[in-house]
Amino acid sequence: MSPSTFLAFFFLLVGVSSRNDDSYLLLPRDLAFDSTTRLALQSLRQSPDTPFLYLQSLFPHHSLGEPYWNHTDYGTLALVGSKGGHVLEQINQDRSFVWLSSKGVLSGVMDGHGTAGHFVAEYARHDLLQRFLNATSNDIEAWLHEAFLQTDHAIPDDLAQQGGCTCSLVYQNGERIYFANTGDSQSFLAAALSTGIDEMQVQIMYETRLDKPGHPDEARRLQHAGAQVTPETAEDDARVWATDPTTGHTSGLAMSRVLGDRQHTAVIADPIIQVIDLKAMKEKVLQEYDAYRTQQCQQVTIHADGSIEPCPLAETPEAVHFFVVSATDGVMDFLKPIEIAQTMAGYLYGNQGHPYLGMEDLLWQSTQLWQQHGQYRDDMAIAYAKTVQV
Question: Among 147, 279, 342, 381, who pairs with 78 as Cys (CB 3.0-4.6 Å)?
Answer without folding.
Answer: 381
